[in-house]
Amino acid sequence: MRADAKRNYDRIVEVARTVFREQGYDASLDLIAKQAGVGPGTLYRHFPKRDDLIDAVMQSWVDGVNETAEKVLAHQGSPRDLLLAWFEEYVRLISVHKGGPAKITCAMGDDGSPIRTKCEVLRAAGDRVLDRLRAEDAVRDDVTALQVARLVGGVATVADQSELDLAAVRPMLEVVADGLLK
Amino acid sequence: MRADAKRNYDRIVEVARTVFREQGYDASLDLIAKQAGVGPGTLYRHFPKRDDLIDAVMQSWVDGVNETAEKVLAHQGSPRDLLLAWFEEYVRLISVHKGGPAKITCAMGDDGSPIRTKCEVLRAAGDRVLDRLRAEDAVRDDVTALQVARLVGGVATVADQSELDLAAVRPMLEVVADGLLK
DNA sequence: TGCTAAACGGAGACAGTCTCCGTATTGTTC
DNA sequence: GAACAATACGGAGACTGTCTCCGTTTAGCA
Q1: Residue A60: per-residue pLDDT
Q2: Domains along the sequence of chain B with CATH
Q3: Of B96, B86, B27, B87, nearest to B60 (Cα)?
Q4: Which residues, 6+ apart, have CB-to-CB distance to B52 below 8 Å?
Q5: Given CA atoms B85, B86, B91, B95 in this order, what sign does their dihedral have?
Q6: What is the DSSP string of A138-169?
Q7: Over the stretch B1-36, which tens digit does the pLDDT of each residue have?
Q8: Distance from residue A9's CA to nucleotide C16's C1', rounded to whole Å
Q9: Interface of chain A against chain B, CB under 8 Å?
């Protein structure tokens, strides 16, 4: 990659991160280009689809996912507490940007999505939590990590679109957790 | 309302019903206007916001909701069967149009939404099912009909956006049902 | 039949996506 | 350090969708 190309690439991602945070994932891409001081052509050459840009923005986010999972697993408590703690962190993780829950949950099952790899990390983290619970025989074993991700992702999506706060989300997560535990 | 106005109103709703069914709730409104043989101005005068048009389209749908609820309640079986039957019908009802689950679930908590009244009918139907289960002391009583609607709506939203079929949705509904039952 | 309030409709302003292609920059080769 | 590919740039503009304004038409009443 040529030096100027890399410069622009980085600049666009940095601007996009800010704009997405402020306006959500459906912010105008031309605006991001302008704010980054490049033409729309440049943006679209680097990131042909919106999801490609989102993927680049999420790069740093992935580290946080693993850290969070570790922290949750380190915490001692009942299986129910563990599951709920993970659910809450999961919702928080995918809700950092408006539109995130729907985007991520949707991409999770879509093999062709550019942000698929990021979702994979998220799912793997969820799997670690589930494995721990399965080892304790605390959770029903006919449910996959993908299904759990979709259940919690569904709750997060509704919360995101209806602008609910964590307090309103919590009881719904409890229902899902109780339905999952043996 | 003047005769020609009513004529156009009805024509637009009829066309919108078809177009929404074929293309989902985010179909172009100008296209609907053109197809109905009116100018965009006419469409926007009758339906200032997209949701106003959706609301009109849903008018006939409301009857189906009540019928379905009655049918589910008439069916004999365990509380779990009843709940699952209702969930499946619920998902089916709100998924007739692409984008429907998100739209309806979101509007359900939004006092200012034009389609609020339609959602009210849906929630009331869900409440009838819940009441029946509460009478049998089969379901936890710290959960409201709105929360249940959001849980199932969340599953339906994910299914809609990820284009999952009912077979894939069923196990997730089971988790929600089990979490809800005592 | 004439009048007025109501309704129409389409031109066009505005915003967002995305592409094409002439121009500019990079980095390599001699 | 000059010349030359290869690579990248950027902005004009095509396209699509939303929504409004306002001159024109029509319905319904007196």
Answers
A1: 85
A2: 1-48 (1.10.10.60), 58-180 (1.10.357.10)
A3: B96
A4: B46, B114
A5: positive
A6: -B-SS--HHHHHHHHHHHHHHHHHHT--HHHH
A7: 899 999 999 999 999 999 999 999 999 999 999 999
A8: 21
A9: 102, 105-106, 108-110, 142-143, 147, 150-151, 153-158, 161-162, 164, 171-172, 174-180
